[in-house]
Amino acid sequence: MGDSKSEILQGTLDLMVLQTLEAMGPLHGYGIARRIEQISDDVLSLNQGTIYASLLRLQQRRWIAASWGTSENNRRAKFYSITRAGRRQLATEAENWQRIAGVIGRMLRLAER
Amino acid sequence: MLTPLFVLLARLRALVARQRCDAEFDDEIATHLALLTDDYVRRGMTRDEARRAARLAFGGAAQIKEQHREHRGLPFVDATVQDLRYAVRSLRRNPAFAAVTILTLAIGIAAATAMFTVARAVLLRPLPYPEPDRLVEISEVNPLKDWTHTVVAPANLADWRARNTVFTDIAGYIGLDDRGASQYRAFLSGAGDTQALSGIAVMGNLFDVLGTRPLAGRTFSFDETFEGHDGVVVLTYGTWQTIFGADPAIIGRTVALNGRSTTVVGVMPPGFFFPNKSVQFWVPVGVKPDVFASMRQPHWMHTVARLRPGVSLAHAREEMTAIAADLERSYPDTNTKMGVRLEPLHAIMAADARPTVLMLGGSVALLFLIVCANVASLQLGRGVGRAREIAVRRALGAGRARLVRQLLTEGLVLSVAGTAIGVLLALAAPPVLARAAAGVLPLYATPAVDSAVLTFAAVLGLVAPVVFGLMPALTSSRVERLSMRTETASPQATRARETLVACEVGLAVVLVVGSVLLARSLYRLQQVDPGFKPEHVVSFTLSLPHPRYDDPAQARGFIEIERRLKEIPGVQTVGGASALALRGTTYTSTATIEGRPPADYQQELRHKSVTPDYFRTMGIPLLAGRFFDAHDGPTDLVIIVNETLARTYFHGGSAVGHRLKFANPDDTDPWNTIVGVVADEKQDGLDKDTRPEAYSSLAASSQNPLTFVLRSNLSDDAAVAAARQTVRGFDPQVAITDVAPLSDVVAASIGSERFRAALIGAFAGVAMFLAALGIYGVLAYVVSQRARELGIRLALGARRQELFAMVVRQGMRPVAAGTAAGLAAALALTRLVGSILFGVRPGDPASYAVSLTALVAIALAACVLPAIRATRVDPLVALHED
């Protein structure tokens, strides 16, 4: 695995968390971490604990909400869900991201020539 | 966007619920790890392997928690709370240090706050009138009469009113003695018992000039200034509340003032006073209109005027000076060289107390600096002792800024505690001050703790830790490495402490020199012979009610009272005088001395009316001629003069047989023949030179009220009680006021000096004590740190006396430096108080010698204990310590 894993930016992680919650509905921290790892085909190196910094940040901004529930194997877990403000933020951020990704992609293609 | 606000709210919430948040996050992480472990187990790991792998995949749980905590709440507040806890804990481990620091601070803050309370009452709090800084007092000055600040003549005032363009109006009032207390007593009947009230008589426009609206009713109109319209009175709120029981129907109520029917027309709002709090009511002056039109002497009105908007004081001075010059040309008889002086009302009211307040304020500032230096030195000593702790924390990754902050927090904890105690002490100060400073503070000033005072205390409390905490904090945190060196006295810290001690000693020198100068000055004052013998004499003032005792019943009444007082068993002599020395009242008149050039008689001459036995009772010796006697009747034109008058105008020759009159040379008033010369008695104060004075016989020139002096072999209380009974037996309506043993009158006349000397003395005492504490602290510390070295020296054969001398030398080094600096500062600073010293020059060598001796003695005493300890070091124990 090692070599092909990439560090991820803080804002990127926030965006991924929001998108995960939007796509999957309410999830606990472990579920979110697991999901991000799966989607990225384990390309992204993620100390799973770092997800909590992101969750705290998003909660403080009221983009996600949390409530206590029971996990699949009967453990007490905190479930996070995306809020209306979170969806708006996700839309804005996704658009930004795509624009920047497009620009960067173009630049890299230009450089290859 | 609201997002930043949401974040802040979330962080605040987390701050409050920090324990719950911690627990929840622990749960959350536990669940996460459990789920991850389960997952690994499913993938075929053993449970132990899975748990290990989960922890690896999760990352450092402790760091994540710490990070979470940091982002969750407000790290600044969190850290502060942590610092506070730490500070309290570490102070509790060292209670002696904490107690000494807190108490020292409390003393400093209490003294400073109490002094600020006084300064605020006297100098800073604005007078209770609209735009009080537009109010001006106008007085008259005249170099020919030696007048620098004198009440004004009514006709001059009337002309100023008519001609000026700079004031909205000028008002006059009468009835204050030289110390500003009301001396106008009125006997009020119609509200329970007959009561003596103090008030002043004012022109009708006074309240318009002041600009304060009455609480109820109205104030006076200008027309009510004059006789015939003056049967009206305005009351203070306090008088209405206490004397009239807050009668709701007070307006329009008729009362008898001095037996005269008077209508209450107004009540002023609470907190209003004019010109000070001794005044309980205001009545119109009730003069005849022609007095205002033409009376240019005598001078008897105080004034207050309000500057028109936009007019500067300088402009007003200019115009008023021009008007005075015009009057001088029009009325050369009375107004030659008569100028005006305009001063802000508040400045004039505070003028007497100002130097005292400023001096005491300066002293307290010095004291506060000593307190700060002392606490800083204590902190430094502690910082050195804690060097190891700090080095450990530094090694564990604490940033320098973080350490400084933590030490400052500790300072803050100390200072909050000290401030709290100091403020509590200062809260108790106003009543104590009011008692100690009775007759010292101006009558308008009541020290009170208000928000400004508390703010002042709080600012001191916050500034102090910066002053005393920052330097030690910086020195301490500079310790970088753990080493043996940190266990012994750090030379920088010791040097810094010695510097602080030198500062303390220097500041203490200034205070001690100041207090010794004031004490010597007070002693000199107490040694001054007042010119009479106050022991075994009581004095009291009797007022005969008008109009039953108007002339000639007045003089007859007083003479009869005197006769009856003399019959009291145990009473030796009784006398009466229209004014008593050192009590603040003076009567002066224009006088002409027969055969003398104008320069002599144009001086205003002091005079008072006395009964024949006044001089005998006071113990004033006769120098030439005779005293008055019972044969001197209303028509006998005889007069007695004091020694200064005889010496000034009759150069060695006897004054007896010469004549003088209270008038200008051309006036036709009759001449009085001088029949006696008596020794001088003090007049305005023990520190003032006696001025020429003439005594008239009461029979010829009666005055009401009259002050009696009674010499007896009774105790003061018994004499007063017997006198009261006698007076009541004569006429129960005669009011007795100002009862005091004559020695108290003399003492009260230097009350202000005594107050100053006592206060500065106390400050100096505290300063010396703190300086001694500082010296002792440093030295005791150094000796304990150098115990090993001392032990080695002893083991190598050093003699104990040598060690003793060595320690004392080290202790006295900063003392010598501080003393030298302090002496220089004292020489410069005491010059400022020269004006309030009596009989002592600011540079008085004896005072400096006494101060130095005292300080050096105390410094040596502070050195002795540590020095003795140094000689008792046991070489074996000292060497075994490691």
Description of the molecule:
- The complex is a heterodimer of chains A (113) and B (882).
- Chain A is 58% helix and 14% strand.
- By secondary structure, chain A is of the alpha+beta class.
- In chain A, strands 1-3-2 form a 3-stranded antiparallel sheet.
- In chain A, strand 2 and strand 3 form a beta hairpin.
- In chain A, helix 1 crosses helix 2, helix 1 crosses helix 3 and helix 1 crosses helix 4.
- The radius of gyration of chain A is 16 Å and the shape is globular.
- Chain A starts with 9 loop residues before the first helix and ends with a helix.
- The N terminus of chain A is likely disordered.
- Chain B has 882 residues and is an alpha+beta fold.
- In chain B, helix 6 packs antiparallel against helix 14, helix 14 runs parallel beside helix 26 and helix 19 runs antiparallel to helix 29.
- The longest helix of chain B has 37 residues.
- Classes of the chains: A alpha+beta (113), B alpha+beta (882).
- At the A-B interface, helix 2, helix 3 and strand 3 of A face helix 1, helix 2 and helix 4 of B.
CATH topology of chain A: Arc Repressor Mutant, subunit A
CATH level 1 class label of chain A: Mainly Alpha
CATH architecture of chain A: Orthogonal Bundle
- Tell how many strands the DSSP assignment of chain B holds: 24
Largest sheet of chain A: 3 strands, antiparallel
Radius of gyration of chain B: 38 Å
Span of the ends, CA to CA of chain B: 65 Å
Radius of gyration of chain A: 16 Å
Distance between the termini of chain A: 30 Å
Strand and helix order of chain A: HEHHEEH
Number of helices, where a helix is a run of at least 4 consecutive DSSP H or I residues of chain B:
30
Number of helices of chain A: 4
